[in-house]
Design goal:
Layout (H helix, E strand, L loop, with lengths): L16 H19 L11 E6 L5 H12 L3 E6 H4 L7 H11 L2 E5 L3 H10 L4 E3 L7 H15 L13 E5 L4 H12 L3 E5 L8 H11 L5 E3 L3 H5 L4 E4 L11 H8 L6 H4 L8 E3 L11 H4 L6 H20 L5
Parallel strand pairs: 1-2, 1-3, 3-4, 5-6, 5-8, 6-7, 8-9
Helix pairs in contact: 1-13, 2-13, 4-5, 6-7, 6-13, 7-8
This protein binds phosphoric acid mono(formamide)ester and norvaline.
């Protein structure tokens, strides 16, 4: 029997376009199953080990719920207990966890920790957010964009040329979403203060990976950035680990708040997205997040469906 190839999700481009299309097909099917109350125990007896070095609500609950709904279980371990690279080496954590669980999900600071876990684990490793990337978020976001803009379509071609305007910081969420947009032939526009824009090394590496230099643009004026966008996205101005910079960032990003005034410059049908948690009154107003253009809760729900499909894919398990 051929041994199954070990696969990880460290960055969004670890999945080919065809594999992303497959994950989305399974996510659409399992989302329908859940809505119809159809039981599926494709992950019976499977265990996901989850390591959290940073706080989480959506990632923790959506991964755990995904495992339970599919008949499996998830174990949630606080980073301090494990002491990745401190109490013991990342290599040893990877090797030992691989003997206990079927897949590892990790939320950490240094992206290198995720890479090291993936290098030394003998089970799939999923990046549940690092300082550099949040691939699970980006996968669920693009699934949500297609669901909203093209509800009748089940391939990825319809997304080609769709422009996402990300008004805010060049953080982990922006980096993964920009990369995925480039990977799928979409356009990504970042609008924020110059000092918080993507650096050249990131732009260079995306251009090299996706083979397109024009997929990511930076536009300083937020009105200009959203003018032709099909989707408007924002996230916190200070990510986890940047708490000491919060005050400085609050001032710098003030002109980039997503509010009714900014939305007036965007196409009327463009939905607003946010990965959450949101800082109401900072990066976006109550009026916007609670308003008719907000799809943030669909986006949050889709984390569950897309991650369930992702685990099925990484474990090589058929969904039905
Ligand atoms: N969007 C997201 O990853 O949320 P949590 O930080 O609550 O997991
Ligand atoms: N950019 C945010 C995302 C939280 C889901 C952070 O890293 O804190």
């Amino acid at each position: 029997m051929m041994e199954k190839e070990l696969r990880h999700l460290v960055n969004v481009t670890d999945l080919s376009i065809d594999e992303i299309a497959h994950v989305y097909r399974v996510a659409t099917a399992t989302k329908k199953q859940i809505a119809q109350g159809v039981h599926n125990d494709a992950l019976a007896d499977r265990v996901l080990g989850m390591i959290f070095e940073k706080p989480s609500m959506r990632t923790r609950v959506s991964f755990q719920a995904a495992m339970i709904q599919a008949g499996g279980q998830a174990i949630d371990i606080r980073g301090k207990e494990i002491g990745l690279g401190k109490r013991e080496s990342v290599k040893d954590v990877a090797r030992v966890m691989s003997r206990y669980v079927d897949a590892i999900m990790v939320r950490t600071f240094a992206h290198r920790n995720v890479e090291l876990l993936a290098r030394h684990a003998t089970v799939p490793v999923i990046n549940g957010l690092s300082d550099d990337a949040h691939p699970c978020q980006a996968l669920a976001d693009v699934f949500t964009i297609r669901e909203r803009l093209f509800p009748e379509r089940d391939e990825l071609d319809c997304l080609q040329g769709v422009t996402v305007a990300f008004v805010g910081d060049s953080n982990n969420v922006a980096r993964s979403l920009a990369t995925l947009c480039g990977w799928l032939g979409m356009n990504f526009v970042l609008s924020g203060p110059d000092e918080y824009a993507f650096d050249d090394a990131f732009l260079e590496s995306v251009a090299e990976t996706v083979g397109d230099r024009s997929a990511i643009r930076m536009v300083r004026d937020p009105r200009e950035a959203v003018a032709d966008a099909q989707v408007i996205y924002t996230d916190t101005w200070a990510s986890m680990g940047q708490e000491s910079e919060a005050e400085v960032r609050r001032k710098a990003f003030q002109p980039y708040q997503v509010n009714a005034d900014l939305l007036a410059s965007a196409p009327a049908e463009a939905p607003v997205m946010h990965c959450l948690p949101a800082h109401r009154g900072e990066e976006l107003t109550d009026e916007v997040i609670d308003g008719p253009r907000s799809i943030v809760y669909d986006q949050a729900e889709n984390r569950l469906h897309v991650q369930k499909a992702l685990i099925l894919f990484l474990l090589g398990v058929e969904a039905d």
